[in-house]
């Protein structure tokens, strides 16, 4: 789905990842669920591109619903997979602490896990080789993505700012649709390791200039990242 001239979304409001298309090639942010492989091929075809045009895949963190087709893309097409050093182990093995699920609504929860099942979410292949990144890195990829450390959801959660796409990709640093309750609007994401730390990290978005804030779950949010921290905290209530 095309959001803007250089900006495409794969997946849907339940699980999303993103494609940035520039003259230098394609940068992907997150790899959704394994079954999103077909969505990726369709989107590439729609814009007249192939996997050979993909220069790199950046993971906002190492959780399985973001690692989806990463290893397949790396293995079959030699695409490097970037992840923050503190989430490298999670992306390679799936190891993570258990977090309480909190409040949930049956329909939304079943919707999330049902969708994950249909997209082979229970059969994640973790990533054998990753390139580790750190806060402040500017990656040598199309769009010159900037890494912003956003610890909290996981220790190595990052936001990715791509000025060429006028967008900040926030992974699960926040959500616009709670996968377990179905509630829409800016709010903290579930399955978060350290909610207080995640909340503090949101301040890091305040300095960024962009028109889109794009989460791993929920509708794309149009607006300034500067307004996000306060809105997410208001969404907790
Ligand atoms: Zn997620």
What does this molecule look like?
- This protein is of the alpha/beta class and 237 residues long.
- It has one domain: 4-Layer Sandwich (Metallo-beta-lactamase, Chain A), CATH 3.60.15.
- It contains seven helices and 14 strands.
- The strands form three sheets. The chain has a seven-stranded mixed beta sheet with strand order 1-2-3-4-5-6-7. A five-stranded mixed beta sheet has the order 8-9-10-13-14, with no helix packed on it. A two-stranded antiparallel sheet has the order 11-12.
- A hairpin with a 4-residue loop joins strand 2 and strand 3 (16-22).
- The site of zinc ion has 6 residues, from helix 2.
* First-residue to last-residue Cα separation: 32 Å
Order of helices and strands: EEEEHEHHEHHEEEEEEHEEH
Structural class: alpha/beta
Q: Considering DSSP H and I runs of 4 or more, what fraction of the residues is helical? A: 10-25%
Instruction: Quote the beta fraction.
Output: 15-25%
Low-confidence stretches: none
> Under the CATH scheme, which class?
Alpha Beta
